[in-house]
Amino acid sequence: MADLVDCLGLGPLLEKAGFAKDSDFEAVYDAIAASGQHGELKAEIESRVNAYFESLEMPETATLYDFLLLSLRETDFIATFNWDPFLVKAHQRNRAAAKLPQLLFLHGNVMIGVCSTDRTAGVRGEPCSVCGGPLEPTQLLYPVRQKNYNSDPFIAGQWKGLREALGVGYMLTIFGYGAPATDVEAVELMQQGWVDNASFELAEVGIVDIRPEDDLRKTWERFLCRTHYGVSTQIWSTWLFRAPRRSCESLAMATLQNDPWPNNPYPKFQSLAKLHAWIAPLAIEEDQAHFTGKPCLQADDFREDSPEVPKRIGLDFVLGWLKLLRNGGLTPPFCVELALKDGAHYNLHSVLSCDDDTRTMMVRIWDLRALDRNDVRVLKQNLNQVRDRRALADEHALHPKLDWANVHLHYDDILYCVEWHDRAWPDSPISIDDITDSV
What we know:
The chain is of the alpha/beta class.
């Protein structure tokens, strides 16, 4: 909240009331509230706070809120002192990708509403899930030294949920919360839940803060058991982001089972769709209740800094090979089978011409329609006597019923070719490089 006075344009109002215009928001609000005076100023500050935070919008790209939510499962909790709507908005746009953690708003939230009659809560603008009536805004708890966490039923319920979660948790991550002097009671309430945890001596605490480690240890020493903690200036190096959706399991495998799982850190995606695709295998494992510890795809599999290289497909390989046959002379009957997408199959005679501009070609096929089974047997016996493929030009010499026909094709009509090996075919093998060059 260091720059909130400037964001809300409170400088002139504070200066007029006798406060320094560059005052710290938490300190000056506490002083105003404790004085019992300046009622109009207090009301104006609260009005501007609501209007400012309600107006905030999230970018379409993936944010830390998205990564944080997707790093946890439905048995986990995120408790926040923030009033802004980002966590709720991120929850709404990620809930279809995987089961998300439960949210606790310890000081209220501008996007959360309550129904005091049915004691339900939800997103403002949506009806009460019981009576269908409109939800009223939650009370925002402001930064004063003497907070009453039990005066508002919604906030009291949020704190009750936090204490219960801390009482059974295996991992606690403190992200960007400095335990200010105005939050002494909050820290005491959190400590009560954490130190009563039966897993306290096995549990891990992660602290994400830019302050020196010695200062952080003094601040949070009552939450720490021996060396079971880690300090980082970035959340990317925490268990949450190094083992998304598997942080507790990864810690247990490494410390209790002495069988650590492979690293599976988040790639730093800009695309929310790619982030959803990355966590999909983890969500599937959760639905099947079978955790393997296998890492997800690597960042290089989701490259965003260069366009994808089009993959060559089988049809191009077929066309390249057929184009080379224009210079290969005649093909013996039964040696090359041309299959079309409409289900037709032909015995290739020769490739006459191709036009890449119109993506069409003309091929000649052997016409075997007049031949019965005995005729085919005679034709094959005659083909066994052929020593030079130039002899194939006289089809009637091979069999009096044998003929040919021209077929005019679009490139896209061709499905595949089958090349049957024969003594007379092929007489000069075609390399892959030849086919690639032709394509």
